[in-house]
Amino acid sequence: xxxxxxxxxxxxxxxxxxxxxxxxxxxxxxxxxxxxxxxxxxxxxxxxxxxxxxxxxxxxxxxxxxxxxxxxxxxxxxxxxxxxxxxxxxxxxxxxxxxxxxxxxxxxxxxxxxxxxxxxxxxxxxxxxxxxxxxxxxxxxxxxxxxxxxxxxxxxxxxxxxxxxxxxxxxxxxxxxxxxxxxxxxxxxxxxxxxxxxxxxxxxxxxxxxxxxxxxxxxxxxxxxxxxxxxxxxxxxxxxxxxxxxxxxxxxxxxxxxxxxxxxxxxxxxxxxxxxxxxxxxxxxx
Amino acid sequence: xxxxxxxxxxxxxxxxxxxxxxxxxxxxxxxxxxxxxxxxxxxxxxxxxxxxxxxxxxxxxxxxxxxxxxxxxxxxxxxxxxxxxxxxxxxxxxxxxxxxxxxxxxxxxxxxxxxxxxxxxxxxxxxxxxxxxxxxxxxxxxxxxxxxxxxxxxxxxxxxxxxxxxxxxxxxxxxxxxxxxxxxxxxxxxxxxxxxxxxxxxxxxxxxxxxxxxxxxxxxxxxxxxxxxxxxxxxxxxxxxxxxxxxxxxxxxxxxxxxxxxxxxxxxxxxxxxxxxxxxxxxxxxxxxxxxxxxxxxxxxxxxxxxxxxxx
Lengths: 286, 312
Fold this sequence. Notes:
The complex is a heterodimer.
Chain A: H1 3-25, E1 31-36, H2 41-44, H3 60-68, H4 77-80, E2 95-102, E3 109-116, E4 121-126, E5 144-150, E6 153-159, E7 164-167, E8 171-173, E9 178-186, E10 189-197, E11 206-214, H5 253-258, H6 262-265, H7 276-285
Parallel strand pairs in A: 4-5
Antiparallel strand pairs in A: 1-2, 1-11, 2-3, 3-4, 5-6, 6-9, 7-8, 9-10, 10-11
Chain B: H1 7-17, E1 26-31, E2 34-38, E3 44-47, E4 54-56, H2 64-72, E5 81-83, H3 89-92, H4 95-101, E6 104-106, E7 113-115, E8 118-122, H5 123-129, E9 147-149, E10 153-158, E11 161-167, E12 177-181, E13 186-190, H6 209-222, E14 234-237, H7 245-267, H8 272-278, H9 285-288, H10 297-309
Parallel strand pairs in B: 4-5, 5-8, 8-9, 13-14
Antiparallel strand pairs in B: 1-2, 2-3, 3-4, 6-7, 10-11, 11-12, 12-13
Helix pairs in contact in B: 6-7, 7-10
């Protein structure tokens, strides 16, 4: 081998190593996962109580929206099959399948895909550097997502999300939400961190975590058929169940049941922090 | 699949067919034969096909050439028809220039030769545009719709699909139409649905809050979402982003809730000033409200109040 040939022989593996290094740091997230609900179980499975907003960074507008909300609104046909938006959906019961779409010629990662059993949602996280769509483009339940690897962590930014809820008791999420997420694996466990910015209904980012476990049992319920029907006869076209300000009969129910001061159950950023316990104690002593 | 027409493609095709479209215009494919043009006043919806484009609304004054250039990137046929959804300037000011510059070969009973693009609208729009009704100065005759209807619906069949032009009485104005492209499954909502702010209820020109709610209910009756409750029938608003059923639904809900609150306050004997101070739109102000511009939150509350207290 000539000197020139030797230099080439050394250079090629070094180049390959340098090229491969970032890829080696990435994780393989693919697989089928089942959710673990121990975190915030009461909210996620039985469901939140009416007018329980404790610990949530809702702003005053969100509170008024939520206290005007009547659960009967979801009897309207157009609301019956309303999907959890991507900013909420990992909180609910779900099975999660993750796979990759790769360029067949280069094997470069184009997108990471997810199928979420709840409401049969398919989600695409574009990994090819494309831009988010125009503000004039439609919004969807899953929004438009782009991702990047930060070492072994997949970081995702999602826009173009429809109006939905931050909590299933009337706490609304607006249609100008931006969701930032981190997905990372430790062995067979997958952790998902969601950070929601909502200029209309949050006073601080809403941060939630969810955990999943890889499973070799891919059976289970992967479907969520929903067919809306007229559930309540006699409503006029366009009736929208809601409470006028000050007329919601359930505002104090949760607070009374748990012996909490009303201001605690009305949420807001102060209620997220440990110092708020002092306020609760003071209120109870009064 | 909705795809954004890339600026490069727009420019390339535009240069081949006509003048390049203005860079501040955006063209999005809604679905099937229908596109939307943003940035020339009100949104302009475009249906394309072998008989020539049909456009819904004609944009603001001074943007007609831009609109025609944009349409030319979608079709090399002359614009065949213009449907006006309502009488406001940002939706009709391009009528005369576009209809006369466009046009198509014609024969038969109309005589051989060239014919301007037909302008369709509800009769009430013509009555206001011509000054026969209301206090507005008459618009130039060339802007007037030449093909009007006075009942609930006008039907066309153009470019291989049925088009229903549906009158929604006393909503945004008293001359509103929504346009349903049945095969493409797209509604051009015109003035009755815009997702950029609180709805404009033009009470002096016949608009009412109840009519506007009825118009939104009409849209909700027509739209059918695809499985998973999104897309399906798509809606191009008069202003703002492309929507589907859920977007219109949440907007309708908002309007009903505000209407009910204002009505309850009227029933309790509150004055308009007291109603404004009570802020019946509070939780929607961040998303839809404005303290400045031509249509403020106070204007909206006043219009809701006015249309609820006026004689039926």
